[in-house]
């Protein structure tokens, strides 16, 4: 298998390789909700998945893999723990993209990298992978902090920790010049409709609906 073909498969890309300098065309859509924990990303993922399934799309949700980590997470996390989470996130997205038209992710690799930076500082050797993988998302939604997080037995509800991760995510997005749809702060009741309207305007989905 050629190096180019191997790289395309690793990124979840299919079809004929594009000409040099052109953006690959993928027969799927991948959407990610980014931000700190406990802000409502999971609920938005399920809501969006249900909406798309009702419209006939073959959808899969990539759930938050940190909950499966064999190593400590939250403020006790480590470089090793976050590397496990980041690489598992990528593996789950590859698995999902191989079998579904639309992939909805509860987090992106950028979120996972934010927790890694919090624990161990920026890892320059890892950033090319993070940067390359962020190109595989078609749409990012930044979910702001809205109220306090509810304890679920896993995620840390410490307000300072949540704000630090939220700040890091914003900084990493800005540093990379990533385009993302920012959900309105203080208007949580509008988020689901904003997400629905934005996603259904994506050309690759709209052409199937109209």
Overall description:
The longest helix has 19 residues. Strands 2-3-1-4-5 form a 5-stranded parallel β-sheet, with helices on both faces. 46% of the residues lie in helices and 10% in strands. The protein has 8 helices and 5 strands. Helix 2 packs across helix 7. The radius of gyration is 17 Å and the shape is globular.
Structure, briefly:
With 210 residues, the protein is of the alpha/beta class. Helices cover 46% and strands 10% of the residues. Strands 2-3-1-4-5 form a 5-stranded parallel beta sheet, with helices on both faces.
Q: Please give the alpha-carbon distance between the first and last residues.
A: 39 Å
Q: How many helices does DSSP assign?
A: 8
By CATH reckoning, the class would read Alpha Beta
Average predicted confidence as pLDDT: 86
Kindly report the name of the CATH homologous superfamily: P-loop containing nucleotide triphosphate hydrolases
Major β-sheet annotation: 5 strands, parallel
Q: State the CATH topology.
A: Rossmann fold
Rg result: 17 Å
Residue share in β-strands:
5-15%
Shape descriptor: globular
Task: Please provide the count of β strands.
Answer: 5
Secondary structure: helix percent: 40-55%
Order of helices and strands: HEHEHEHHEHEHH
Order the strands across the largest sheet as they lie in space: 2-3-1-4-5
Which features characterize this protein?
single chain; alpha/beta; Rossmann fold; disordered N terminus; 210 residues; 5-stranded parallel beta sheet
